[in-house]
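Minimal example, chain plus adenosine monophosphate.
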Amino acid sequence: MGVPNEQGCIFCSIVRKDSPAALVHEDQETLAFLDLFPLTRGHLLVVPRRHVDRLTDLPEGEYPGLLRAVSAVCRKVERLSTHYNVSMNQGALAGQIVFHLHVHVIPRYEGDNAFGRRPRERLSETEAAALLKELG
Ligand code: AMP
Ligand code: ZN
């Protein structure tokens, strides 16, 4: 689905370290960082370094690496909350905005209204620094 388009891709730019991100995990195949407009406190994204639009474009050989990274990130998120959503939006109608495959890990808290309709505030640098400490 779709032609790989690394040019102008914000997540490719983060992978290349051309754009800033609060990194929580990095390995040969993946990167994970704090979502800039978090649905809840500690909302994270796990991305393959390879630019693909969606899961079905990722070479199968890279499935294990991605899942391993998701699991490592979940383990970190469990320091914030043992309740969390792990999800992927595939296609615009499903809410995909960034067309570089990413897995959301969204910690859940009592009464958080994570998926309710409300403006999403940009993550502050202070909050990002605090979260990076807590996530370890
Ligand atoms: P999706 O709707 O599944 O495509 O999710 C894209 C996510 O990327 C959203 O939750 C955005 O808040 C997040 N996002 C967009 N730009 C950045 C960025 N530069 N750094 C971190 N997260 C971002
Ligand atoms: Zn990309």
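The chain is about 25% helix and 15% strand. The longest helix spans residues 63-77.
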